């Protein structure tokens, strides 16, 4: 059975542009269109707002959406009524959600930037591996979010929002409490502005970086579904596996270093003769692994991972709970790093590690050759 994906829509409770009398709220098409896309994908959607309960729709968006079939379907189906019974932040179990989404409208500019309660929920979700997404002014919801490291969630990230030029074109320049583009830049974001009122989606992660890579795209078409139904550690009979592989991404930096259950599985597999391999930040999975003699699995091993220099290059040094290269050296690893984003695979007995995303394929090829030679 396919795992349930749950999406939390975080909408505004604010209905007026300051004290101007100009009505605002959440924007109809920015709720209705994502709602239809997510619903068609069989995602379960819940709604939350700062105050809970009934939330205001921007009246101008209702006019604009009169000829939009997705907007009209959202209204006629009764889905719009769900915005009258939104959850309050205190009612949300954030661990239930794999996707966080902030729709726009000018309302979020007034009640989200200083909302520490919602910011804390988003921080928890993001550091637990959830996708955090937003459109237009909804990105104002990112402004108060700080990670466990203390830095802004947007620092070093490539993103976008309604631009200063678009704010001026809509004659709202003097009605908003601040300019969102300017704020995001001041928080350290790599802000990408597209042409005025033209589609512009920014994804700083791997899906965007490897959209032209045929192997990655083939996996998305044929293999990615398996990641929706992963096993828990307690479901795994580790004796059945000849290869243990830790994939990268920044997520492992937060949930693997202290996971003793997975660490014990890895130790058992390795001492049972399995090849243990990892790429990029996936090598952090080896950090908690201790062998039967009490020593770290990496002690004395020639090993690599995403380097301190690469972390600095992508401007995420301060977002990390620790620097992986430094940690591996501290554990006694013989760390070998190459130039930024150059292929680098290190083999040390039955431990194979790759430095960065370009090293993933060559790392896998080395593992295959080891297994076949055994």
Automatic annotation (TrEMBL):
It comes from the Eukaryota. Belongs to the peptidase C56 family. HSP31-like subfamily. The keyword Lyase applies. One of its GO terms (molecular function) is glyoxalase III activity. Keywords: Lyase, Stress response. Residues 30-142, 225-368 form the DJ-1/PfpI domain. This is Uncharacterized protein C11D3.13.
């Amino acid at each position: 059975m396919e795992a349930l994906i749950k999406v939390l829509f975080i909408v505004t409770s604010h209905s007026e542009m300051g004290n101007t009398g100009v009505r605002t709220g959440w924007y109809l098409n920015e709720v209705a269109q994502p709602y239809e896309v997510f619903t068609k994908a069989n995602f379960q959607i819940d709604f939350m707002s700062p105050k809970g309960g009934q939330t205001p729709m921007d009246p101008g968006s209702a006019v604009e959406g009169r000829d939009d079939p997705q907007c009209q379907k959202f209204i006629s189906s009764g889905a719009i009524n769900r915005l009258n019974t939104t959850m309050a932040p205190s009612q949300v179990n954030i661990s239930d959600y794999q996707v966080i989404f902030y729709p726009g409208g000018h309302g979020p500019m007034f009640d989200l930037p200083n909302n520490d309660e919602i910011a804390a929920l988003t921080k928890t979700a993001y550091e637990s591996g959830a996708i955090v997404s937003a459109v237009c002014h909804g990105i104002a919801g990112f402004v108060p979010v700080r990670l466990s490291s203390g830095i802004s969630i947007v620092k070093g990230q490539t993103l976008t929002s309604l631009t200063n030029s678009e704010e001026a074109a809509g004659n709202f320049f003097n009605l908003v409490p601040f300019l969102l583009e300017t704020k995001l830049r001041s928080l350290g974001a790599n802000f990408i502005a597209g042409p005025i009122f033209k589609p512009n989606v920014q994804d700083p992660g791997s899906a965007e970086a490897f959209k032209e890579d045929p192997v990655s795209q083939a996996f998305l078409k044929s293999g990615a579904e398996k990641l929706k139904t992963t096993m828990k550690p307690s479901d795994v009979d580790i004796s059945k596996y000849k290869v243990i592989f830790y994939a990268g991404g920044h997520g492992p930096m937060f949930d693997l270093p202290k996971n003793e259950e997975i660490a014990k599985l890895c130790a058992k597999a390795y001492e049972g003769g399995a090849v243990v391999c990892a790429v990029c930040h996936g090598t952090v999975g080896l950090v908690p692994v201790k062998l039967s003699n009490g020593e770290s699995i990496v002690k004395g091993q020639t090993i690599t991972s995403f380097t301190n220099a690469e972390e600095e290059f992508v401007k995420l040094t301060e977002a990390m709970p620790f620097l992986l290269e430094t940690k591996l050296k501290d554990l006694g690893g013989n760390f070998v790093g190459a130039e930024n984003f150059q292929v680098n695979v290190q083999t040390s007995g039955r431990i194979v590690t790759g430095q960065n995303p370009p090293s993933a394929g060559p790392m896998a090829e080395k593992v295959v050759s080891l297994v076949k030679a055994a």
